[in-house]
Amino acid sequence: MWGTVLCVVAASSLVMGEGEYLLPGDVIPSHYDVKLAYDVDPNTNFSFFGVVDILLRAKRPISKVVLHAQDFTIAEEKISLRSDNDVYQVTGVDLNDTYNFLTLQLDRELKEDDSYHLTLPFFGNLKLGLDGVYISSYVDKDTKKKEYLIATQFEAISARKGFPCFDEPIYKATFSINIGHPKDLTAVSNMPLKVSSGDNALENIWPWEVMQQSFGKPRTKYVWDEFDKSVPMSTYLVAFVVSSFAYVDSPPQLSSTKFRIWARNDAIDQTSYAATVGPRVLSYFEKFFNVTFPLPKQDMIAIPDFSAGAMENWGLITYRETALLYDKEQSSFVNKERVAEVIAHELAHQWFGNLVTMKWWSDLWLNEGFATFVASLGVMNVEPTWHADKSYAVSNIMSVLNLDALESSHPVSVEIDNPNRISEIFDEISYRKGSTLIRMMSMFLGEEVFRKALHNYLIKHSYGNAEQDDLWAELTQEAQKAGGLTANVTVKEVMDTWTKQTGYPILEVQRDYSEKSLTISQKRYLSLGGSFRTNSAWWVPLSVLCERDTMAQDVHWLSDKEGVDKEHRFEHGASPDEWVLFNYNMIAPYRVNYDARNWQLLVSTLTSDKFTQVPVMGRVQLLSDAFALAWTNKLDYATTLQLASYLQHEDDYLPLMTGLNALSKIENVLKRTPNYGAYQKFMRRLIRRTYEKSGGLASKKILNGDDLNSVKMQVRTSSTACRAKVPGCEENAIQLFEQWMNTKNPDENNPIPLDLRSIVYCVAIERGSVRHWRFALERRRRTNVAAAKDQLLRALSCSRDIWILAQYLEWSITDGSDVRRQDSASVITAVISSDIGYYYGKEFLYSRIEDIYKAFNGQGRRLGNIIKTLLNQFTTQRELDEFLKWYDQNSEYFDVAKLAVSQGIERARVNIAWIQQNQALVVDKLRQYSHIESAAWRGKPIFMSSLYAIHNISSHRLKLDQMV
């Protein structure tokens, strides 16, 4: 038999023209019959055999069939193509390496509109990877035995690694999956199990005598599981897992759909939260979309090695363990929130992405943006006290305003002319900007119109493909029924300005205080100021609040023709001594700059005991705008820091988080300069009051532990206080860690409050010795909870010992080390982000790029994130020049991360420009505000006590630039 096998070889390179990265579309699939047999055994190198029978229809006469295949061998003499009454000969088999096109030349033309069966046999060996069909492993806590499992990750273009197929989202088909595997394992797939059999389902193509040569086991050790025929779906949604996992059933009263949560046997007790959240969210979405979930079951499974957070495969959602499993004894409140958010996100995809799918990856945002937005609604429904609608909106918008201010950003709907670069757009623009724009539509259209239009869209395009214009049409139709948009504009006219253009606008607002009017102009906002000329303009929804207003105001519009060539006049009701506030509910992602007098009116209110007169989201918007405008010299830092001074009285987490995030950008560019001490002193004065009254490390316990936002407030203020060397913060952290080290049976008894552990671990390891590091490493090795492992993984990077960091980085690219491949990028970015680790992490990247690249094979996006993390810390032209020279010499490693690299380079230039233009001024202001005693800065002087605390730190490795 082996003499008849042809390993598919690369065809000669082709000259690719426009659109040649896509399949020609001459034949289209309607059904796949996929039969697979796997030996889940390292002794046989995880060998497998497969055959796929594809039902095809020819759209025109054609003498070849082109589809995708990758990473396996095809038996040429066993390929067949037949119709009901004819058999065709395959005269040639070629594979184009560039786009993985498998081309089958035929002896004559197929007939238009006739149906054909294409049978393709193949075989190979599974790899220890993170995409396609791959091997994962773990050590069972109870048996101490190493267990192996098979998992899949086909999005975006890795289904072709599982079996030959038409691996583009537009080619939807039904699937019948049949998997042969060892009897002691269990197989699950998209659909319910139909029947199990001891008969070799591949016998006609791969007789057992042939497979046994590779498997080395008798057929009696195997079983073949056949699953029900699926609904029509894209190839990237096909999934199966073969494992020895256990499962729990969800309470049947929560959903009419059967739910099962799968995990390692020794982690099955961590599934109870997912088992209740999943069906509740699914039931909510059925009501929200008014479309019934079309499958009879929904499995959710936690995979030990998984590159993404989760994957929305229809009927079998796969998760990283931290995104599905929750242990109330070892998982923090934020871990619990993360589980709920990811479950809601993936279940939202069952409608947006699975039921209706984008035609091509250019409209990925239709999948990810909707799932991100709707996830907040799902979490809000099952956990209403978390206020996910506001917190997720703020988080998304802040991320968008940061990334989309770069010239190197990209539109939401972006042209993808090379499938190998699809992974680059799985970023904040597709997810978070997409979500932000969908939220914007729901707000200006109204929930009723919005939901009706979504229902119509989902029904009309069920089991098919759509693009954004299809959605715009449904939204416009419903909006017109309800009275229409302003000036009879269509949703497409409005939204194309947001989805087809890069960036977002800044509005310049100038008030006429004698006439109760103002003028508005718009242009694109950029982090590098006015260095880039653009004619971009937007349809901007204006939510405007005057100081005297006591209720929400109607949305007004600034069209894409207004405020561009000349200022647009707008009337309002505020008196000359009252402020006017734009975007008070953050309806859309844009920035606003006011005249000096209006800024001062806003600052005066915020720094008084009437600051709550400004709505919470309005306070978020003001803080974000003020710091961003000051960064680009559009607003003076005196105004910005005066506004920020009110944060010491802020009781709401969202504005406090926004202000501290904005200040951390200043910390990022000062932390390796002699001026860092001035920043720390400023932060001590700003944060100390809030830190001491909130709880957290100030009291060495979490107060109001059932209130998520209170917990977040305590965690964030504690983290900031320790970074700023607030007296007692680090000392309390060290005491808690030492108490843990001295506890009998520390793996079962951890006295550190759950939500403070990430801070305590990092402080103790940073300030401690190798003894502390090894203690944390051992605890990580012993814990069975992924969330606890993840906290310790990041904390281990906090060490200031070079040899430890060197060892840790080496582990990140070494198979079989303490660092799983899914966590490799997290380790490297964490080390690079740390104060001391930056220097060695940079050298590690520069000197070991080839090894890193090989270790990250198939994870180009992770490598791009590492580069962005490094570049974001550059503050000198010398650092950037050094990088550019290195990058030029190693550019072949970044073909799938070019966008990330260009964004990182631009961020480095933004930092460098700030240092040159603003450092001296800002440091003077920080020192000035650190010494001012005023109503805005109440509290006793803390300079001497802070200095005393710093000099009494036990570690001898403090940087000199942290001293005041």
Automatic annotation (TrEMBL):
Cellular component, GO annotation: cytoplasm; extracellular space; plasma membrane; side of membrane
Residue span, Peptidase M1 membrane alanine aminopeptidase domain: 273-498
Domain of life, source organism: Eukaryota
Annotated binding of substrate, by residue: E155, G309, A310, M311, E312, N313, R861
Cofactor binding remark: Binds 1 zinc ion per subunit.
Binding site for Zn(2+): H345, H349, E368
EC main group: hydrolase
Membrane topology reported for the UniProt record: Lipid-anchor; GPI-anchor; Single-pass membrane protein
Key word Protease present: yes
A Pfam cross-reference name: Peptidase_M1_N
Site positions per UniProt: Transition state stabilizer: Y431
SUPFAM superfamilies named among the record's database cross-references: Leukotriene A4 hydrolase N-terminal domain, Metalloproteases ('zincins'), catalytic domain
Entry protein name: Aminopeptidase
Source organism (scientific name): Pieris brassicae
